[in-house]
TrEMBL record:
Residues 4-75 form the Phosphoribosyl-dephospho-CoA transferase MdcG N-terminal domain. Signal peptide: none annotated. Pfam families: MdcG, MdcG_N. Keywords: Nucleotidyltransferase, Transferase. CDD domains: NT_KNTase_like. This is Phosphoribosyl-dephospho-CoA transferase. It comes from Pantoea rodasii. The keyword Nucleotidyltransferase applies.
Length: 202
């Protein structure tokens, strides 16, 4: 099964989450809510996942067996739901709609609370919510186009953060544009680099 960090996974009715330590999960989570793929290595066919709680600080890490996954909502798929969604009047969803109206040479999607809300219609958004975006970048991207993307984000009606996903890991776009050196999040842990498309610095 091909899953990537930030994908939302819907599970079978009898699915069990593995290695969850936080007691609130048993009271709050059910298979009517998706779990999110987190950045880690697969273990014996189990997928690393995170669980959202009712409040912002409630986040739990665990695992789920791949055979329990019945549907995957990728960040790119969720963007398509913005214009017709029940939450379309909220600032982060309005921002998505505006960004959709422009053409970009890369594939991009929405993550975080806005992605979760678009997938579930649960009321996890408010007027001051941030918007978290993801750019797929299998190859290095045009710096001028990235700078234009960042300028467009500055005009949107909410605060926006973008992560750029490379074959090696993910990094914050604003950090890359500011310094050219980033903290790359990989399945083996974070590392500082100015070559986020390569396995290791030479």
């Amino acid at each position: 099964m091909n899953v990537r960090p930030h994908d939302l996974l819907w599970l079978q009715a009898d699915a069990t989450l593995l290695d969850i330590q936080e007691p609130w999960v048993a009271q709050q989570w059910s298979v009517q809510q998706p779990v999110v793929v987190r950045r880690d290595r697969m273990q014996q066919g189990n997928i690393p996942i995170g669980v959202r709680g009712a409040v912002r600080h409630q986040r739990a890490a665990g695992w789920v067996q791949a055979q329990n996954v019945v549907r995957i909502d990728a960040p790119e798929m969720l963007v398509e739901r913005a214009a017709s969604h029940v939450f379309r009047a909220l600032p982060t969803v309005q921002a998505l709609i505006q960004l959709q109206q422009q053409r970009w040479t890369w594939c991009w999607g929405v993550t975080g609370s806005t992605g979760f809300a678009l997938a579930t219609s649960l009321p996890v958004l408010h007027a001051d919510s941030d918007l978290d975006l993801l750019i797929r970048a299998p190859q290095p991207l045009d710096p001028d186009e990235l700078a234009e993307w960042q300028r467009q984000l500055a005009r949107l009606p909410c605060r926006v953060d973008t992560q750029v996903e490379t074959p090696v890991g993910a990094f914050a776009l604003n950090e890359w544009l500011r310094t050219g050196r980033v903290l790359l999040k990989t399945a083996q842990g974070p590392r500082l680099t100015d070559l986020p498309w390569t396995e290791e610095n030479p």
